[in-house]
Write a structure and sequence with these properties.
- The structure holds 2 protein chains of 2 kinds.
- In chain A, 35% of the residues lie in helices and 18% in strands.
- Chain A is built from 15 helices and 11 strands.
- A 9-stranded mixed sheet of chain A has the order 3-2-4-7-1-8-11-10-9, with helices on both faces. In chain A, strands 5-6 form a two-stranded antiparallel ribbon.
- The radius of gyration of chain A is 19 Å and the shape is globular.
- The two termini of chain A are 17 Å apart.
- In chain A, 62% of the residues are buried.
- The model of chain A has no long low-confidence stretch (mean pLDDT 95).
- Chain B is an alpha+beta fold.
- Chain B has 2 domains: 3-327, Thiolase/Chalcone synthase (Peroxisomal Thiolase, Chain A, domain 1); 345-466, no CATH class.
- Chain B has 11 helices and 22 strands.
- Chain B has helices at 42-54, 79-86, 104-118, 139-143, 189-212, 229-239, 261-272, 308-312, 321-327, 345-350, 352-355; strands at residues 3-10, 14-17, 32-34, 64-68, 94-98, 123-130, 147-154, 160-169, 175-176, 185-186, 221-224, 278-284, 287-295, 316-317, 359-363, 369-370, 386-390, 396-404, 414-421, 424-430, 443-454, 457-466.
- Chain B has a 9-stranded mixed sheet, sandwiched between helices. Chain B has a 5-stranded antiparallel sheet with strand order 20-19-18-21-22.
- In chain B, a hairpin with a 5-residue loop joins strand 15 and strand 16 (369-370).
- In chain B, helix 1 (42-54) crosses helix 2.
- Classes of the chains: A alpha/beta, B alpha+beta.
- The A-B interface holds A 126-127, 129, 131-138, 140, 142-143, 146-151, 154, 195-200, 243, 246-251, 253 and B 336, 339, 342-344, 347-348, 351, 354-355, 368, 370-372, 378-379, 399-408, 413-414, 416, 418, 423-427, 429, 440, 451-452, 454, 459, 461-462.
Chain lengths: 387, 472
Amino acid sequence: MSRAAEAIRDRVAVVGVGCCQFGENWDQAPSDMIVDAAYEAYADAGIDRPQEQIDAVFTGSIYSNKGPHECADALKLFEKPVTMVSNYCATGTDAFRCGVMSVAAGLYDTVLVVGYDKPKDRGVAGPSVVMSQVRDLPQTPAGWFALCAATYFEKYGAGREDLARISVKNHHNGTLAPNSFLKREITLEDALGARMISWPFGLYDCAAQTDGAAAAVITRADLASRYRDDPVLVKAVTVMAGPNPQKDPGNDFLRWKPTGWAAKVAYDQAGIGDPMAEIDVAQLHDCFTLTELLSYEDLGFIQKGSAKEHIAEGTFELGGALPVNTDGGLKAFGHPTGATGVRMIYENTLQLQGRAGERQVPGATTALSHNIGGHPTACGIAILGRS
Amino acid sequence: MSGLESYGAYVPPTRLGLSTLGGGAPKEGGPEKAVAWNDEDAVTMAVTAGAACLRGFERDSVDAVLFASTTYPMKEKQGAALVARALDLRSDVRTADLSGSLRAGISALRSAADAVTAGSARRVLVVASDCRLGAPGSGQERNFGDGAAAFLVGDADPIATFEAGHAVAEEIVDLWRAEGDRFVHSWEERFVVQEGYLPGMTQVVEGLLEKAGAGAGDFERIALYAPDARSHATLARKLGFSREAVTDPLFGRVGNAGCAAAPLQLVATLETASPGERLLVAGYGDGAEAVTLATTAGLEKLGPRRGLAWHLARRWTVPSYDLYLKARNLGTSEYPMPEDQGLSATIHHRERDDDVSFKGQRCQACGAVQFPAQRVCESCFAKDRFDRVRLSDRSGHVVTYTFDFFFPTPRPPTVVTISDIDGARIHLQLVDCDPRQVTTGMAIEPSFRCIHRVGGRPNYYWKAVPLPEEPA
């Protein structure tokens, strides 16, 4: 076992998770969503005196300009360390990672992780269009993530139809998740006929834009039984920085490099040799359909270039060999950036504890969650397991 | 003896059919005018014309830049310094703007000739560029066109030498644009022509002929500014110039290009002239100014240039008047919201070699070219060991692309590419190109453009345009 694997694997347990209703939460402040998510996680862990039972807080947000105080003040968790983490779309996973490391290092017994964001307070629909750049305009996330399409399609013969199937799948899964924003089935024709956002992404290829918060209570593995009799163990957690793919001279635009790098480290920590066989359920970063497609390959689930066939066969659908985005993913939940990684921890925890209702993957014992963000320049992966 | 060593031009490829004005359909082959698109203005056109003129010349040999324009977007802040930086000229280059009159282009040319003759500069780049806006529905909207012309003035092997020059000054309220005015005002047209244009031009040409000791019949080519085609014909007849000698004033093709109008005609004469011809060029505005030149054997040695003919051959037609209004920001729109402060002046300043000069860097350790400047090599991780390299005069190819329908632009989609120039990967918009024609691997070259306006200021950067099949 590598030193990193020894330092992390099975040392920390998730004993409580919470997730607020994601959506256009016009009548909720960030603090309202933080409280909804955190108190659900408290209840899940059986925590009734958080001010005494929580030793430290790691929170993640990219839109907040209030720093860690926003979360500390909302939850009135004072006289303890509270830290805010920012790492693009991997922010939630990174906040979780910082919490896990602090517990694994023995600094704290029990830590609260809260990811949240409230982009719908900015007065614009859709993702931000950065207009204050000096160069590199336009700056739209759809434009960034679309840059692998021309090259990937050309090399592997995939096309918009393959992307559309991912959107149809995630829309369907979203109808089964109580806290999702979009609960509407769509057809391939809907996806292919929608207005274009950034080729090849039509409207339905893009994640929704929502407000949301999610929380997790983590503790030392040896203390987990105080909170629950079915704790979930952290097998691996890592983030990875990558070059800006737009100026990276070696980039082939067939993959997003940080995913491959992060996967290698995460599999080493978790002791996973064959991800397709050993992982039972995965939440992947489907900010855009192509991001999910590339992640199947970049995570080593399948060979590079073979996503088209697997999508056609339903490999990643509920009931398939490796269900992906069982709750509908970013597509159905939207992407309040800091919240997303923690929302994935929430879904994977429910899946591993057999609490995922209609979308339950039977007998799941190992679950992976993945974020990739920036241009993309940052990736986060967490692997949870029972056993 | 001072003269012209090179020339170049820029005419926007966008053409607005005069039949389109007011809402009609474009008429193939009908009269039209060249219009700057939403990412173009007097500065971007000047830079492109300047680069065309400097092709094949050592840029460090340019001692001064004179920028003539009545439509440079800033009141306080020099255009010539920006043009010089975008052309990556020496930092000790002398720069000055000439403005306020449509004869500024000819005045700049003559001032440059004087500087070279006096020995205070060996080479002067003169750029005349105008982008005047006629109010929607006005006669000026029909008349005005956009374009730029550039000349390298020096005394080493000129293609044409200056002979005589003459100017007259006159106080007259014929055309004006005051502080805060968006559109040009004009007094009654008959007054403008009869009391301003015809006597002013007549006086300057007669004075010039006297100085040159020449008659009207001694010139093979004559380039005359004119407010309109009819006045142009009247003046030529009045001065006794033969129809064959008088250069096409470009109405119905470019339109009245303001202070670049006579300079563009001069480019046209140089493109077709033979050695040993005499040329006369005259500009008008608050008086008039004119010069005579004689072409030399050097004309045949100058390599092909992107001049007027080259640009006139490249064109696309605006399909509707509404689209033109949108591109020139003459329509109404609530988006994007104004950002008052605009882009950061400090970032703009720090990055001027990257963003304005479009210089990348070459790693001294591994040789990799990258953009923008950075402290640690993207390829071999060497630190602080780079030479700056100019990318603006290079070509490259598209690595990948997307069509962005979300970004606000008059004519979606915005074509976004990652382009490779000498190995550097650069995020560049691709313009002057039908999105259906975009492919990976297609050849491109950089073009200086205004990528957006924010905080009341234009933000200049580079875009990609398809690499022309005929380079010049």
